[in-house]
């Protein structure tokens, strides 16, 4: 062929053509290279041919025999037709059935030799004999390559409407036949040998059509030697990109913040608590980075309630004291508003100027930001839109980073003055991330963990209830309020709609007012204006509200030590990370706190798994690990990590050890050759892997 596989259109592979090319595009397959790395998601061993008389009901079996009948049968009381094939191998009879596919008859002739594979079923009418529904079939020929669908370990691919697994398997067979010899291996030889990896061509072939005798268990878990090579390659490309990014940042000119810490001292003197040892350690790590002449790139992780916001304020005050501006970007208006509510009074009391920038804020002090009059800006992605420019942005803080990616971080960094030095970047998350995931997604950053909660915190007692147990819940709420405590009741929606039968916050508040006429009950939700929300939260903090009815607006950033009980209505509708975040609003004082999960049927198996973990554990890191296992890496963050290439072969849970090996090799290579001048073909591959995401290799 002599073609560049990354540019060779899939349309020109035998058996594809323009129509099927469109269907393959739906699977993300546009080129021959895309197809080579579109691996089966499971395999079936159709290698062992059995006698019909020895077949086992419910098992996947393969037989060979002669066609003795091929008939189209009209089904009684229906317009549907059935194509029925009868095959004999001398030991017994087997029927193959294809419903509503009468055209299948033209594929078969009586007397023909045939191989069939399928799940063995009983004849539903007589209860005797054997049947296959929609079996795979193959005609033996002298050409050994004809055995694609049976008599071997057969790959099963995910497919799309209009393209059968059988058709896709044939296309893949033709593709490998035509293209695998064109594959070039850009992996440095010493890395292949050091990690005992097989050859690339061999790995691609055996990941699509495994050799006879391959370990089926390993194949179906994606950990055969050949699949491991392809996973390693993908992770290596990923980590090379992160390493190049990090190397580029290490040589950028940044701001060396030299501060006496006057503002930070004022802040600490005003707090009603002392920082934990972990908070002090993490702020020291941040300060150490900020004093260097290179830009800081640090990720702070910590469980709910560990006190990340205070650390963020301390970092912003450090930048402002040195004459620079600071910006804090949050993924939602609600979270941005919560930060603004928590921070603005502290900052304004020090004589500093702060502003809130979100989509719904009408008056935007753009001139004051551009002139440097505004010291601290808090907002959503509105902060990185056109028309917003800072005079001297020194620190960019990004909260709940999994909603933002490399691109957004880079865009916020570029908001400084064109001639200015590169600002420091601090990224925070209240969603603990398993270590393997952090290494994959944030490998270009340094890493701090606040692994300690304030000393007076007690684990929140979490219990699961169904709707028949509501009276117990309401008695418990009344009991808590009688002790002088406060309660959150969280609903999944603001108001009810005809499309769902979910209980809503507005109706819930009305019902609660009838149930508890003597208690002060208020409502807060995302559609309220910022000032309204701030007024409600201020009243709740002061103890003027007994029950706060809310949506997930209170998920992050709300700290009321006297609130000791939370009821989450329709708990089955919330994800595990979200349930844990919500629960983090209680348990912030010295008193025992409670979180009640009220679930309605049908809850589903996954919801039950979530409840089991919530009831057992208060540890955010353990919950994050379990969440990753339940949902899988693709769904863990809710949205794809913006600015990151997708991993199509590797699995960050399964391949934790491989990630570490690939990272070590990638970072070692970039340390020795930052621009991969000694590996031009590999450099081209890495840039292709990261294309459209971010520019690499600008280290010169």
Q: Helical region count?
A: 22
Largest sheet: number of strands, sense, barrel closure: 7 strands, mixed
| DSSP E strands, number | 22
Overall CATH architecture of the largest domain: 3-Layer(aba) Sandwich
Strand order of the largest sheet: 6-7-4-3-2-5-8
Strand content: 15-25%
Radius of gyration: 31 Å
The CA-CA distance between the termini, in Å, is 37 Å
Mean pLDDT: 87
The H-level CATH homologous superfamily of the largest domain, spelled out, is P-loop containing nucleotide triphosphate hydrolases
Can you give keywords for this protein?
single chain; 700 residues; alpha/beta; DNA polymerase, domain 1; OB fold (Dihydrolipoamide Acetyltransferase, E2P); Rossmann fold; 4 domains; seven-stranded mixed β-sheet; seven-stranded parallel β-sheet; 22 helices; 18% strand
Summarize the structure.
This protein is α/β, with parallel strands linked by helices. It has 22 helices and 22 strands.
């Amino acid at each position: 062929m002599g073609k560049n596989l990354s540019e060779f259109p899939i349309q020109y592979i035998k058996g594809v053509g323009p129509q099927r090319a469109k269907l393959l595009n739906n699977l993300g397959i546009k080129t021959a290279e895309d197809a080579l790395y579109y691996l089966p998601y499971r395999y079936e061993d159709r290698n062992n041919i059995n006698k019909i008389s020895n077949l086992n009901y419910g098992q996947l079996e393969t037989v060979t025999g002669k066609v003795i009948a091929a008939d189209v049968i009209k089904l009684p009381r229906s317009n549907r037709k059935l194509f029925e094939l009868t095959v004999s191998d001398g030991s017994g009879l087997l029927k193959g059935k294809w419903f509503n596919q009468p055209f299948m008859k033209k594929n078969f002739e009586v007397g023909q030799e045939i191989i069939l594979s399928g799940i063995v079923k009983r004849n539903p009418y007589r209860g005797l004999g054997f049947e296959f529904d929609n079996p795979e079939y193959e005609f033996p020929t002298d050409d050994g390559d004809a055995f694609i669908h049976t008599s071997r370990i057969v790959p099963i691919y995910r497919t799309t409407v209009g393209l059968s697994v059988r058709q896709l398997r044939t296309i893949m067979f033709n593709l490998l036949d035509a293209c695998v010899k064109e594959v070039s291996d850009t992996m440095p030889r010493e890395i292949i040998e050091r990690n005992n990896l097989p050859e690339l061509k061999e790995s691609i072939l055996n990941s699509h059509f495994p050799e006879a005798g391959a370990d089926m268990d390993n194949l179906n878990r994606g950990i055969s030697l050949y699949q491991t090579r392809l996973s390693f390659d993908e992770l290596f490309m990923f980590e090379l990109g992160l390493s190049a990014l990090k190397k580029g940042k290490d040589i950028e000119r940044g701001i060396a913040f030299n501060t006496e810490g006057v503002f930070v001292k004022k802040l600490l003197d005003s707090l009603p608590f002392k920082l934990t040892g972990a908070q002090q350690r993490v702020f020291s790590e941040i300060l150490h980075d900020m004093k260097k002449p290179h830009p800081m790139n640090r990720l702070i992780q910590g469980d709910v309630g560990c006190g990340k916001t205070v650390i963020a304020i301390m970092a912003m005050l450090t930048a402002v004291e040195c004459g620079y501006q600071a910006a804090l970007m949050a993924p939602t208006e609600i979270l941005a508003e919560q930060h603004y509510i928590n921070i603005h009074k502290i900052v304004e009391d020090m004589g500093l100027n702060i502003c809130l920038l979100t989509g719904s804020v009408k008056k935007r002090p753009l001139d004051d930001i551009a002139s440097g009059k505004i010291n601290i800006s808090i907002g959503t992605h509105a902060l990185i839109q056109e028309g917003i420019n800072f005079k001297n942005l020194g620190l960019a803080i990004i909260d709940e980073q999994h909603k933002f990616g490399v691109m957004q971080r880079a865009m916020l960094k570029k908001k400084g003055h064109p001639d200015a030095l590169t600002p420091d970047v601090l990224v925070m998350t209240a969603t603990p991330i398993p270590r393997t995931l952090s290494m994959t997604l944030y490998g270009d950053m340094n890493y701090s963990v606040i692994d300690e909660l304030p000393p007076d915190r007690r684990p929140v007692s979490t219990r699961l209830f169904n709707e028949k147990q509501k009276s117990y819940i309401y008695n418990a709420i009344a009991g808590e309020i009688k002790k002088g405590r406060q309660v959150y009741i969280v609903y999944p929606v603001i108001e009810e709609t005809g499309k769902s039968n979910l209980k809503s916050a507005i109706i819930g508040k009305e019902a609660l007012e009838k149930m508890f006429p003597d208690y002060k009950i208020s409502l807060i939700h995302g559609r309220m204006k910022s000032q309204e929300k701030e007024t409600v939260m201020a009243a709740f903090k002061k103890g003027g509200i007994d029950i706060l009815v809310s949506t997930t607006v209170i998920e992050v950033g709300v700290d009321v030590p006297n609130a000791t009980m939370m009821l989450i209505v329709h708990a089955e509708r919330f994800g595990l990370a979200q349930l844990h975040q919500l629960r983090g609003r209680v348990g912030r004082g010295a008193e025992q706190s409670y979180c009640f999960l009220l679930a309605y049927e049908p809850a589903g198996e996954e919801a039950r798994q979530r409840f089991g973990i919530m009831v057992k554990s208060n540890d955010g890191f353990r919950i994050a690990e379990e969440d990753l296992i339940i949902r899988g890496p693709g769904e863990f963050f809710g949205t794809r990590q913006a600015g990151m290439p997708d991993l199509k072969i590797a699995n960050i849970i399964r391949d934790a050890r491989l990630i570490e090996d690939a990272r070590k090799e990638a970072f070692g290579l970039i340390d020795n050759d930052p621009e991969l001048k000694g590996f031009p073909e590999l450099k081209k591959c890495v840039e292709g892997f990261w294309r459209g995401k971010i520019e690499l290799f600008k280290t010169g």
